[in-house]
Amino acid sequence: MSFGSPPASTTQTSSIASYDCNVPQAGNDGISSLNWSPTANFLVSSNWDSGIRCWEVQQQSAQQVMASPKAQVNHENNMPCLDTCFSADGSTVFSGGADKSVRMWQLGQTPPNNIAQQIGMHDSPVKSVGFIPSSNLVVSGGWDAKLKFWDARSPNAVGEFVLPDRVYDLDVRGNLMVVATANRHVLIYDVSGAQPREHSRKESPLKYNTRCVSCFPDQTGFAIGSIEGRVGIQYVQKVGNKDHFAFKCHRQDANVYSVNAIAFQQQFGTFATVGSDGVVTFWDKDNKQRLKAFNPIRSTIPCAAFNMQGTLFAYACSYDWSKGSAYYAPGTANEIFIHPTPEDEIKPKGSRKK
Hints:
mainly beta, Methylamine Dehydrogenase, Chain H, 4-stranded antiparallel sheet, globular, WD40_repeat_CS, WD repeat-containing protein, repeat, WD repeat, WD40_rpt
């Protein structure tokens, strides 16, 4: 299934709109994740140069945004940082990385040696982290095929699940957590109580390796993206007359590109996908419509996120290694842009005509 129309032009620029804010000091290597504070317009990135960076973002007018660098900490031994998340009150950033550690950084405090405090360890790199509001636990998923739960006050994991394979991505939204692993396994958890419990597990509806997963804002389901340029919409339980479906995206002519990230807009439940084709697209899953297709930029886009108000959309421009080392160009800029997002770009436009 596919819906909507392709981008209007193949002319490539450095950002999806000329007025997008180019975030200063975005790092010296690939950008692996972007996350907004749940309580204020603070943006945090993780980076392959080991850095975790924070900016304060101010929207000064409909098309004018300013981002001010606030602080940076690192993982040890210059090892890549692969993901971050915020605590529910926005005071603390948690991270996971190739040094196998789970770390904590309290914003406004500079830790010793500028290294974020270690609160946990895996046996292999930590691919993804999340924060569970109901229990105030940090969850981490690693390439050791383990899901671990951490209380920042304790050096030992307070819980652990052994998974079918390596973790590729996880997402927590309220009481719902979804974990995607290698070989297309998808595990769904209820994290409403003190002890997370597995709700169900299934095979991905997509035929190829999972790249990303993101829970719906209303927690009724999740979207999953793969390397084949396809997104699956899945419901945890039957919801009215809504059914699972999948659609094609991030394809140009005969070329198929990875869906690198799926970012939901909190207010409307619509979402963005970004991919290895350098394209950002806004979608409405309920009406099965493409809302906005931006022209491709001159870079792959590895990650993206909406702020809590849904008025600002951050996206990174850096090589995602989708074509291997042969296509890596040393000296290529690693950039982050912030796109002011008016309602007419991301708000549902009504039911699709039949």
